[in-house]
Design goal:
By secondary structure, the chain is an alpha/beta fold. It has helices at 41-53, 69-78, 103-114, 136-152, and strands at 17-19, 25-27, 30-34, 57-59, 82-87, 94-95, 101-102, 118-123, 159-163, 169-170. Helix content is 30%, strand content 22%. A six-stranded mixed sheet has the order 4-3-5-8-9-10, sandwiched between helices. Strands 1-2 form a two-stranded antiparallel ribbon.
C-alpha cells in the first residue's frame, strides 16, 4: 500500500503531516515566528519558506486584530508548538504600559512561560537601515534581551548569523 500523501503547505494556515518510518502519519509542528517588525522582513520570509518546505506550519502576529496587541501576540504564541526568535540590530517598539518591554520580548516571555522550545537566531548584520536601533536605550535593552534569550535557547545557545566576506549571509 503506498504511503499516505499530504498537500504541500504554502501559507501560515497550512498544516501538514509527515509520514513516519512505519508509513503512519505524524503530526506537523507549528512554529511561531517572532522578531521586531522593521528590518527583518526578508529573514522572516525565508524562515516561513523553510518551515513550509519541511512540511510544517507557521504562525505570526503581523496581521491586524481587534484584540489588544500584546494579548493577541501571546495567544498566537500559545497556539504554536515551537517559538522561533529572530533578533537583529533593533530591539523593537518599547511599550510603556509593559515596563518598556518590546512586543517581541513579551512574546518570548510567553513562550518561556508555556515551556515552548525557543529557537533563537541572532542576526549580526543588517540589509535594511530600518533594522538598526541607534538609540542607546534601545541598544541596552537589546543587549539585555539577548542575554535572557541565551539562558533559554533550545540547545543552550542561539545561532549566530554573520555576513560572509563575499556578502552572503549565513552562520
Amino acid at each position: 500500500m503506498p504511503a499516505p500523501r499530504r498537500p504541500s503547505p504554502t501559507t501560515s494556515e497550512a498544516v501538514g503531516d509527515q509520514v513516519g518510518a512505519s508509513g503512519s502519519l505524524l503530526p506537523a509542528h507549528r512554529f511561531y515566528i517572532s522578531s521586531p517588525f522593521q528590518g527583518l522582513e526578508q529573514e522572516r520570509e525565508l524562515c516561513k519558506q523553510l518551515i513550509t518546505r519541511r512540511g510544517h506550519a507557521y504562525g505570526d502576529s503581523y496581521k491586524g486584530s481587534t484584540e489588544p496587541l500584546v494579548q493577541t501576540c501571546q495567544a498566537d504564541v500559545g497556539a504554536n508548538d515551537h517559538y522561533i526568535l529572530i533578533l537583529g540590530l533593533r530591539y523593537g517598539t518599547r511599550l510603556a504600559e509593559h515596563g518598556g518591554k518590546s512586543v517581541t520580548e513579551l512574546e518570548f516571555e510567553e513562550a518561556v512561560r508555556l515551556g515552548r522550545p525557543v529557537h533563537a537566531f541572532f542576526i549580526r548584520y543588517c540589509v535594511d537601515e530600518k533594522g538598526i536601533d541607534y538609540d542607546p536605550e534601545g541598544q541596552a535593552a537589546l543587549a539585555a534581551f539577548r542575554a535572557r534569550v541565551t539562558d533559554h535557547a533550545t540547545g543552550g545557545v542561539p545561532v549566530e548569523c554573520r555576513p560572509h566576506p563575499d556578502g552572503r549571509s549565513g552562520r
